[in-house]
């Protein structure tokens, strides 16, 4: 039983180990393939698509603002003393309407007036936090830049402003002109990426400051150099100004894949981020299904193995305790049954006896008809004897043409059994021989050797009297 238990346990461990190893290897291979595809293809492609959309959306105000900055009308109007406010108002209104911008504007560096299609919005000043952009932009001498701010001329709507320097022929700053598009339009592009690709996209400037993000609370306030996980790869992101850069980072116990694409016209970086766990949702589902199928398969295989082992173990045990020719018990089984009977006799006083049967004239059968015929006689003899036994009796082959029967009862019970067997043998046409038998009852202190010796002596006494009879040890 212990060996069977160890065998089944070892088989279960092997099956479980194989299923787990196979499932884990498949999952790791799938994960690496998904990760490689995301970093090499999917994320860069998504970034390229978003880049194209945002580039298209922002290039129009950039080109129009550039045209405004080079428009001789606007330049002449400023150098002419900014007379006729209606003229510039109509000019800005026409451009706004024609291109569908949220706003168009001109801020004069000469008079500090902020012109819109509705007229003069205000006079700018260095103390107004909404005007800081103007002084920062004009100080760095850049021809243009992009700025995210609330649009005071459009109900404080978050707006992407494209600012362009307006200069005279000698390069003297006359003001800043440009156009603004609602941040909502840019956010729609990023939201679409989230809905379509389940990937987060946002834009940062060269300092790592977030410029456009679905979470507007981060815009112009959060730096990736200070964000969990992103801070570790921020230098690589900000240094990349060529082809798309693919990176990985960990944050909040999750693994993220990222691709960064530089937009030189705006000097911004477009980041597309994929939560690897989301991307591997299908792979994890397959992994769990594989584990479940493996568990069920393991149970089925183990159940079949248990049945097979039980079947073959029973067969092996039967063969180990049985004479293959006659089907009678062998000496090992007889010894175990004797020990049990002796225990019951000593504890409960239940008597038992043995009956030894030796075929008469069996050698002549072998010599005349051959050993195969002799084997058939032995098998038939065993069958006839078993037919006269009780369920508690045991028939064993003692050796050669001798059988031994262990039965409950005294010598008289054994004599009666011998007579019944003799009658059955005489009636059996396939048993051409008779038998001599000896009987001995168990005595306290007997072992199998002493008990069989007395029965054997009685059997030889029966043979000495001509055979075909039964003798008891007590008769000697």
List the helices and strands and how they pair.
Layout: H1 2-69, H2 72-79, H3 85-99, E1 103-108, E2 113-116, E3 119-123, H4 132-139, E4 144-151, E5 157-167, E6 173-182, H5 183-197, E7 200-205, E8 210-212, H6 230-239, E9 245-251, E10 254-263, E11 268-275, H7 276-279, H8 281-321, H9 331-348, E12 352-360, H10 362-369, H11 371-386, E13 394-399, E14 402-408, H12 411-427, E15 434-441, H13 448-464, E16 470-472
Parallel strand pairs: 15-16
Antiparallel strand pairs: 1-2, 1-6, 2-3, 4-5, 5-6, 7-8, 7-11, 9-10, 10-11, 12-14, 12-15, 13-14
Summed up, the helix count is: 13
Rg (C-alpha, Å): 52 Å
Structural class: alpha+beta
Q: Please, what is the average pLDDT?
A: 85
Poorly predicted regions are none
N-to-C series of helices and strands: HHHEEEHEEEHEEHEEEHHHEHHEEHEHE
Give the total of beta strands: 16
Helix content: 40-55%
Shape: rod-shaped
The biggest sheet amounts to: 6 strands, antiparallel
Strand content: 15-25%
How far the N terminus sits from the C terminus, by CA atoms, comes to: 46 Å
* Main β-sheet, spatial strand arrangement: 3-2-1-6-5-4
Essential attributes:
476 residues; five-stranded antiparallel beta sheet; 13 helices; alpha+beta
Walk me through what this model shows.
The chain is of the alpha+beta class and 476 residues long. It is 51% helix and 23% strand. The strands form three sheets. It has a six-stranded antiparallel beta sheet, sandwiched between helices. Strands 8-7-11-10-9 form a five-stranded antiparallel beta sheet. The protein has a five-stranded mixed beta sheet with strand order 13-14-12-15-16, with helices on both faces. The longest helix has 68 residues, at 2-69.
